[in-house]
């Protein structure tokens, strides 16, 4: 079954490290955008779907009437499974109990809250709108509103971050009703304000230490790692995101949204005006893809790994030969033809993948 991704490209203001496609929000623009989005969704042929994911941007700045309209349109346009996972990314600064209750009532059953850190100085350095207390309140309010499946996003390797600071932030999670954690390392993207500042960032050794300590800390506290940057209590892995890594089909609506559909990859142009002018022209880029390379690349992000028995390709013998060599360095394991990266391997996954495929 398909995954449906809905992109909401608006934020209250731009964070200095962010290069996602998002623009400053205005009421009027949101109304026009939701109309255009619904036109795009309606134009898709009816198919079964079992995950719906609202990402951004800051999706929870939409009004309840917007969510209602988009969800009704998706439910009419697709054959939505009765147990579908319906997720909403949320900024803690915009989470009120009333709104969370209304969102839950509409059918959202998973909420991903952008905590980023429980250290106020770090949140300030990231230019976030919320503080640690607001993030904690948002999580409690989400639980009170009836969300059982609550995820928290964290960032690691922040300016001046030490091991103690990171573990203190993560420690706070264990007292909260959280079932899933995403923890991404800060990457300085070109053309962002951060790329023009002289930040004191953890060096490679400290970054590796922070990552490995965080993984151990989360695993020792009941959050199993199922992907390089994702951890969950049993049964709470994100079903929508798993589709990306398992190379299953999904369709994305809105500027900058990506799709993998009928064996092809598509991306919508990062251009809100073009999308508003003609929302049905959403498949702009047709990227060619190599099934074997993609499956290996994506599956190796998962703790379940890449099963060489599951694909037929004459490159497999070569991949296994190189994998045996890397196994000696503790970067991966091979069991019954399944290659899985170790924690040390996850840290250098890009180099391993390129070594297995191209060197
Ligand atoms: S809230 Fe999220 S999407 Fe918006 S600017 Fe900040 S990091 Fe980017």
- Widest sheet: strand order? 9-10-8-7-6-5-4-1-11
Q: Give the class from helix and strand content and strand pairing.
A: alpha/beta
Residues in helices, as a percent range: 25-40%
The low-confidence runs, each spanning 5 or more residues with pLDDT under 50, are none
What does this structure look like?
α2 links the parallel β4 (48-56) and β5 (79-90). The chain folds into two domains: 2-244, TIM Barrel (Alpha-Beta Barrel); 291-358, Arc Repressor Mutant, subunit A (Orthogonal Bundle). The protein is of the alpha/beta class and 359 residues long. The strands form four sheets. Strands 9-10-8-7-6-5-4-1-11 form a nine-stranded mixed β-sheet, with helices on both faces. The protein has a three-stranded antiparallel β-sheet with strand order 12-13-14, with no helix packed on it. The protein is globular and about 60 Å long. α11 packs across α13 (349-358). It is built from 13 helices and 17 strands. The mean pLDDT is 94. It binds iron/sulfur cluster. Iron/sulfur cluster binds at residues 11, 14-15, 18, 20, 22, 56-58, 91.
Write the layout of secondary structure elements.
Elements: E1 2-8, E2 10-11, E3 23-24, H1 27-42, E4 48-56, H2 64-77, E5 79-90, H3 97-106, E6 110-116, H4 120-125, H5 132-144, E7 149-156, H6 163-173, E8 180-185, H7 204-220, E9 224-227, E10 230-232, H8 239-245, E11 250-253, E12 258-261, E13 264-267, H9 272-277, E14 285-287, H10 291-299, E15 306-307, H11 316-328, E16 332-335, E17 338-341, H12 343-347, H13 349-358
Parallel strand pairs: 1-4, 1-11, 2-3, 4-5, 5-6, 6-7, 7-8
Antiparallel strand pairs: 8-10, 9-10, 12-13, 13-14, 15-17, 16-17
Helix pairs in contact: 1-2, 2-3, 6-7, 11-13
